Input
Amino acid sequence: MQRQKRQSPDDTSQRQKALSIWDDEGGAGRADIPVASQEQWTVRQPGNGDLIAIGARIIGLKNVLVAFLPRHRPA
Output
């Protein structure tokens, strides 16, 4: 079993400083940042090339999944 090291006041201040940086990164707590409205976004319909690329990626993902599945035969 490991012995726990006592925290010095310097360690505590470093931890508080690191945690305070996280508070400034944004997220759910920041209400002063304006949210983009729906009118500002234009979304184009996917074309045939986009759908083919998505289909190829799905097939590739399926192949990776099958490769990682255990292969056993029921007795």
Remarks:
- The chain has a mean pLDDT of 76.
